[in-house]
């Protein structure tokens, strides 16, 4: 009141304006109505939740009858055609051979087909040409590399722990490689789920499987964990919240974290449901307190080794110890020599020439000592040891989690017995004494119909451009209904029929006629179904950041194959700091030096950081909608902004790709027409048209010396190169 009076006394504003300033921005009645609305929404959600399609058992649907059964080549086509026919529409024509090959190559491996692969495919007159292509792509390492990136978007993966102080996640790459291998060996999807939630709690027959199970639990800890949090109680409940949110979104398509402080506003998920589920992670050890001030760190678990791995490690240790011994000996000699030089420099009457020589040598010795100190400290920190991974383990004395009132860990309510979502299950888990119950949770999630629906919908979205449920991360009440509910359940059952084989499931989709449709626009169909929900044509999709960058390197012939390993070049001492255990801050990284050739590796293998834009060779990610690594993203945003066109036009990297392409053209010598034909096949994966050929030849003859470089740059920045049609 005093502030208002003072304002009025010293103000020249009209009284009515001052009166408005004293009034609340919104009338009290508004907040009453808002509260009533929220309560009403909650009541309706709880009443309708049991009947919501996502929580129902899978329906036992069969492919429907259609008017034109000859059009369909698979059961998937029958579901799609039936919906189209009901509106009086027809699917568009099939995509041509070149378009289909480019599409399936990008979708399955994230890379375009090579010229040799194009020529082999179009010359294959057998009836099995497409099957051969799909089987080759599924068997390639590129399949796991492509689909692993889709999964890493969902889990907030990065090579950095949290966002503070550039703390590196030294062993994060093992989880990334686990995901790549899981897709490539065709690990059954239900096992993929179980290992990531509770891979440390299952029994395995082989050492490699045990190591994979432990590594898989990196799913739970490789998120944006704020390890500098001084309030450790708050940090732990925040980690539990993040883990529950990740499981809910990635596997179940639900926002479970919304019920941390109150019943879910929209879905029939109560506060008790939240803490029943959170209890599994409340009894899971994910982080530990370090000796460096307030800092914590993510758990590291030792992985079992095969005899071959152990033998190789022993050899590495021997070489490492010898190198370290040599450096320590050299340092001792340098220190002794510097001490001797210091004494000489104290001699009175020494010649100026001698003093100048001694000073120069002393400075050189000091510089070398500083470098040796850095090398020795680095070598001691990164000494070879057993393979390690970031993961979790059960706590020693598990107990049910208590409600944190308004999320405050210091305001505790009653304990809630561990259990599953009531709306999605009538099962009450029997948890063995002394265990967290994560194993039981993993079994429940892996076997739930919701997990199967979410999985097949995610795969459909990656292959067709849109999900049958367009809100791919959210299957709750306000989310989208499926455009083809019977097809969604049919696909979920098909995944189970394939025993969780993602390769077989994906194979069945890309060999459907629906997948092979053209993406051409059709006016009447667009009027009836402007969003293409009926799938009367294929959606056009712009290449994501990884596919775009990898394709540019691939067409230059310089893309390097890689079998995994650390993305961060931590082997260079100048890239790391804080290695001294007496430092108050944790070890950190910065990019002073990159590995030779790292700029030609697939984008998947480049470092992912959280605190700033993606560095160095991964810069293209910053331009083309790479998701913020602290989020869990099933479907990336796609923008079209001037910076993207400017990057393609002016980036020195893209200019270099164009120059590298010239060498590929030189390898395939010939006349202008032959080289242009090769260039079109190489970049656009189709033959050059007659009009394009005429215009390209005219351009080359007009521009002069730099014509070929400019031609390559224009094609690399063209819409057709950027798109998967």
Structure description:
The structure is a single chain. The protein is globular. It is mostly helical. Helices cover 50% and strands 5% of the residues. The chain is built from 28 helices and twelve strands. It has helices at residues 2-9, 15-22, 28-48, 75-85, 97-109, 115-122, 129-139, 141-155, 172-184, 189-198, 207-216, 232-252, 271-282, 307-345, 352-381, 438-447, 449-464, 485-497, 502-510, 523-528, 545-556, 620-623, 642-650, 652-667, 672-683, 690-703, 707-716, 719-722; strands spanning 284-285, 287-289, 296-298, 300-302, 388-390, 393-394, 401-404, 412-416, 541-542, 576-577, 588-589, 723-724. The strands form six sheets. It has a two-stranded antiparallel sheet with strand order 1-6. Strands 2-3 form a two-stranded antiparallel ribbon. The model is unreliable at 1-25 (pLDDT under 50). The termini are far apart. The protein folds into five domains: 2-51, no CATH class; 75-139 and 450-542, no CATH class; 188-304 and 392-447, no CATH class; 307-385; 648-724.
**Care to count the β-strands?**
12
Shape descriptor: globular
Chain oligomer state: single chain
Q: How large is the radius of gyration?
A: 31 Å
Given helix and strand content, the structural type is mainly alpha
- What's the rounded overall pLDDT mean? 91
User: Would you identify the regions where 5 or more consecutive residues have pLDDT less than 50?
Assistant: 1-25
Helical percentage? 40-55%
Number of domains: 5
Strand order of the largest sheet: 1-6
Beta percentage is under 5%
Number of helices: 28
Terminal CA distance reads: 65 Å
The largest pleated sheet is described as: 2 strands, antiparallel
């Amino acid at each position: 009141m005093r502030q208002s009076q003072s304002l009025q006394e010293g103000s020249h504003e009209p009284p009515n304006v001052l009166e408005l300033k004293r009034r609340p921005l919104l009338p009290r009645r508004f907040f009453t109505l808002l509260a009533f609305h929220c309560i009403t929404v909650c009541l309706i959600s709880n009443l309708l939740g049991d009947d919501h399609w996502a929580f129902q058992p899978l329906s036992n649907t069969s492919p429907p009858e259609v008017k034109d059964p000859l059009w369909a080549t698979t059961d998937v086509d029958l579901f799609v055609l039936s919906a189209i026919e009901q509106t009086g529409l027809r699917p568009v024509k099939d995509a041509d051979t070149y378009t289909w090959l480019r599409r399936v190559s990008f979708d399955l491996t994230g890379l375009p087909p090579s010229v040799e692969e194009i020529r082999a495919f179009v010359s294959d007159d057998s009836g099995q040409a497409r099957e051969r292509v799909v089987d080759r792509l599924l068997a390639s390492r590129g399949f796991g590399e492509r689909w692993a990136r889709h999964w890493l978007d969902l889990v907030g993966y990065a090579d950095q722990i949290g966002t503070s102080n550039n703390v590196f996640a030294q062993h994060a790459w093992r989880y990334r490689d686990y995901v790549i291998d899981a897709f490539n060996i065709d690990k059954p999807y239900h096992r993929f789920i179980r290992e990531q939630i509770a891979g440390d709690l299952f029994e395995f027959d082989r050492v490699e499987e045990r190591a994979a199970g432990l590594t898989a639990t990196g799913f739970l800890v490789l998120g944006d964990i704020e390890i500098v949090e001084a309030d450790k109680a708050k940090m732990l409940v925040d980690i539990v919240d993040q883990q529950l949110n990740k499981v809910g979104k990635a596997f179940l398509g639900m926002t479970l974290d919304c019920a941390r402080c109150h019943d879910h506003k929209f879905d029939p998920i109560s506060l008790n449901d939240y803490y029943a589920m959170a209890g599994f992670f409340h009894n899971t050890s994910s982080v530990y307190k370090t000796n460096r001030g307030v800092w914590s760190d993510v758990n590291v678990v030792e992985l079992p080794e095969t005899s071959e791995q152990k033998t190789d490690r022993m050899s590495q240790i021997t070489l490492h110890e010898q190198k370290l011994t040599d450096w320590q000996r050299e340092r001792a000699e340098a220190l002794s020599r510097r001490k001797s030089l210091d004494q000489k420099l104290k001699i009175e009457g020494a010649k100026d020439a001698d003093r100048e020589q001694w000073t120069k040598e002393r400075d050189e010795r000091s510089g070398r000592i500083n470098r040796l100190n850095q090398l020795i400290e680095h070598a001691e920190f990164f000494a070879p040891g057993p393979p390690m991974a970031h993961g979790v383990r059960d706590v020693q004395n598990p107990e049910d989690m208590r409600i944190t009132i308004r999320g405050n860990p210091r305001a505790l309510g009653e304990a809630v017995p561990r259990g599953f979502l009531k709306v999605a299950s009538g099962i009450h888990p029997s948890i063995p004494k002394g265990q967290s119950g994560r194993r039981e949770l993993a079994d429940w999630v892996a076997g739930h119909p919701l997990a199967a629906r979410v999985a097949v919908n995610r795969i459909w979205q990656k292959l067709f451009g849109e999900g049958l449920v367009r809100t791919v991360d959210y299957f709750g009440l306000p989310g989208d209904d499926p455009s083809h509910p019977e097809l969604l359940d049919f696909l979920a059952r098909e995944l189970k029929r394939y025993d969780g084989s993602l390769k077989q499931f994906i194979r069945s989709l890309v060999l459907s006629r629906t997948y092979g449709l053209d993406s051409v626009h059709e006016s009447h169909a667009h009027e009836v179904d402007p969003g293409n929900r009926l799938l009367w044509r294929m959606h056009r999709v712009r290449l994501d950041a990884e596919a775009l960058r990898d394709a540019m390197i691939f067409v230059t012939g310089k893309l390097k194959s890689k079998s995994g390993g650390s993305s961060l070049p931590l082997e260079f001492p100048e890239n790391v700091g804080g290695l001294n255990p007496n430092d108050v801050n944790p070890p950190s990284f910065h990019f002073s030096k990159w590995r030779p050739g790292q700029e030609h590796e697939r984008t998947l293998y480049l470092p992912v950081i959280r605190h700033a834009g993606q560095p160095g060779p991964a810069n293209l990610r910053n331009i083309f909608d790479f998701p913020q690594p602290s989020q869990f993203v099933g479907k990336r945003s796609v923008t079209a902004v001037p910076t993207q066109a400017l990057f393609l036009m002016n980036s020195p990297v893209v200019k270099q790709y164009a120059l590298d392409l010239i060498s590929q053209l030189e390898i395939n010598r010939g006349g202008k027409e032959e080289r242009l034909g090769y260039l079109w096949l190489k970049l656009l994966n189709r033959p050059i048209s007659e009009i394009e050929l005429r215009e390209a030849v005219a351009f080359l003859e007009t521009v002069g010396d730099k014509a070929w470089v400019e031609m390559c740059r224009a094609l690399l920045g063209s819409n057709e190169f950027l798109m998967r049609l």
